[in-house]
Amino acid sequence: ARDIDIENSLTKLDTLAQNLMTEVNTLHAAGYGLDGSTGNDFFTGTATAAGITVNPLISNDTNLIAAAESFNIVPGDKPGDNGNAIAIANLQTAQTLNGNTATFGAYYDSMVSDVGLAVQQAMSYYGHQSQMVLQMENYRESISGVSIDEETVNLIKYQNAYQAAAKLISTADEM
Predict the structure, then answer these.
(1) 106: which of 5, 48, 99, 102 fits an S-S bond (Cβ 3.0–4.6 Å)?
(2) C-alpha 29: how far from its chain's center?
(3) Rounded to whole angstroms, how far apart are CA atoms 109 and 103?
(4) pTM exceeding the 0.85 threshold for the entire prediction
(5) Nearest-5° angle of CA 94, CA 97, CA 99?
(6) In 10 A of CB 172, how many CB atoms?
């Protein structure tokens, strides 16, 4: 489990993070922020599940979020539109993983399902092995173990023999 199953799950999670980072950054870099900036990545860091972070520049200035597809300033209007934000939101249903056959959600669901199946299988193996160990211990005890009933019978037999020997000595002493 440690060397194979967990490593496979971590690799799949890293693949999900890497693809999410790549797809969002590609669209985000093509869009425009409220300040007219473009070419900014939304995510930075390493393309792994543990290393992906929101770009600190965007965290500090939300005007850099490239929600607009174009940057047209109309007097009295806000700059841009929401076309790029919609394109990024549409990534949710886009088939971008597993050779463009799975969405982010379907890939994640499959990954969680695989982990659940591995856990269920491990629990089944554990239950089976526990039953086998218990059966083997019981079998060993039946062969080499101590029978309480047999030991009780022997104890009573030796106690009666001791009492008989004590009576014999007592009788011989009186004679």
Answers:
(1) 102
(2) 33
(3) 10
(4) no
(5) 110
(6) 8
